[in-house]
Amino acid sequence: MNVEFTGRHYEVTPTIRKSVETGLTKIRKILGDKFDTKVILAIEKRRHKAEITISPRNGPLVGEAQAGDMKSAVNEALDHLEKQAVKYKTRWRSKKRHDLKKWNGKEAQQDSLPAKVGLGETTETEISLVVHKFPAVAKSTEVHLVRSEDAVALRPMTLEEAIKEAHFRDRDVFVFRDPKGKVMVLHRTRDGKLELIEAP
Length: 200
Known about the structure:
Blueprint: E1 3-8, H1 14-31, E2 36-44, E3 47-55, E4 61-67, H2 70-104, H3 159-169, E5 173-177, E6 183-188, E7 194-198
Parallel strand pairs: 1-2
Antiparallel strand pairs: 2-3, 3-4, 5-6, 6-7
């Protein structure tokens, strides 16, 4: 059990240390968690103050108390902390159950009894699952434009000439005009084949 004690105008005694650790054992049984604990014990204007902070998974819980002596202050702080731990645990359990019902698609029919099935009959239940969800707006990367005169033919050429030119220039995309003046695009696919795209 990892407990950090801090005394402000107060020296932490072994009896106080033992009573804090005993109270934390009860809380540990409730939460069933490994958590760090910080204990601040202080005396201000003849009032004994105890502040105990534990940090389970979903956020810290704090128990504070003031009393005439330190043992009473520590016990009150532990009582407050124990009540908070019980609330925390029930809230966590109900949220977990609620999420499970939602996932199983049984939120609307929580109290309904299952239908009786006769011998040889089968029942089918429909469960909706989201396998993969794409983001609403695709993230765009910054575009870097570079002018390339190497991928465009300056004179009209036949398809065979354009294929030879694309291979010679080592281009994946090559734009040219055929002898009739129509714009054509040669595109090399990932498997190495050349596609011919005719512009309208």
